[in-house]
Amino acid sequence: MTAVSIAGVTKVFNQGRPDEVTALSDVDLTVDSGQFVSLIGPSGCGKSTLLRLIADLIAPSSGTVTVAGKPAGQARRDQEYGIAFQQAGLFEWRTVRRNVELPLELRRIPRQQRRERAEEMLALVGLAEFGGHYPAQLSGGMQQRVAIARALAVHPNLLLMDEPFGALDEMTRERLQTELLQICATTGTSTVFVTHSISEAVFLSDKVVVMSARPGRITTTIDVNFERRDEATRQSAEYFEVVTAVRKALRS
Ligand SMILES: Nc1ncnc2c1ncn2[C@@H]1O[C@H](COP(=O)(O)OP(=O)(O)OP(=O)(O)O)[C@@H](O)[C@H]1O
Q1: How large is the ipTM?
Q2: Nearest to residue 50, comparing CAs of 78, 31, 70?
Q3: Structurally, how many domains does the chain consist of?
């Protein structure tokens, strides 16, 4: 089963105006079910634009975007995906639990069921004790975990993440990477993950998609087949080999 299929997609902003920008040109990408795919490339190469097209927050100028076998707009209406961005984007006046419940409220899920699902998701991200806290009482890493719990609350088949760990220190970031992999393995969620970090992309992904700027294109796709992904992986020769391959692809 294919989670995301992008075929011949071009995105031009401000078409026909002096400030016209071709953000993406003729992009093809397939994300298989359960696969973890990272998008990496220089600033302005269209990573966020590609993610926003998958989420149907913007429409392509040409080409097609299919999510879970449906046109992207239908997939959005059916809430086939969850989104987490660099800023956790929590509502300060809502408790952690009620932040996680929000997408369920929007779906008109009954209160009891909402509460149970929120507790389940908070346990999954290791925050079972913090449901009654307010976001300001949590560290940045904990807030990011709440955002992930919220994105997963509707049990989406697809998770879209735009530099979700960008604002975190290195140690917290590595811990959350490991947690995210465990969550994806437990839930079978497919993930499209935007990052600037080569090491993060390599550690997390089944496939690293390298992009170039002006116009944004996919230049190289690197498959990653580690048997395990743990602290030892980060020290292994095969890990450094893939890191080097991605770095070379980014340079060329
Ligand atoms: N709404 C918009 N209107 C006009 N131009 C836009 C819009 N959104 C993005 N762009 C342009 O499209 C190009 C790609 O932007 P995008 O944000 O996708 O890049 P990115 O790879 O995610 O960058 P970064 O790594 O810096 O976050 C850039 O040149 C940007 O200026």
Answers
A1: 0.97
A2: 31
A3: 1
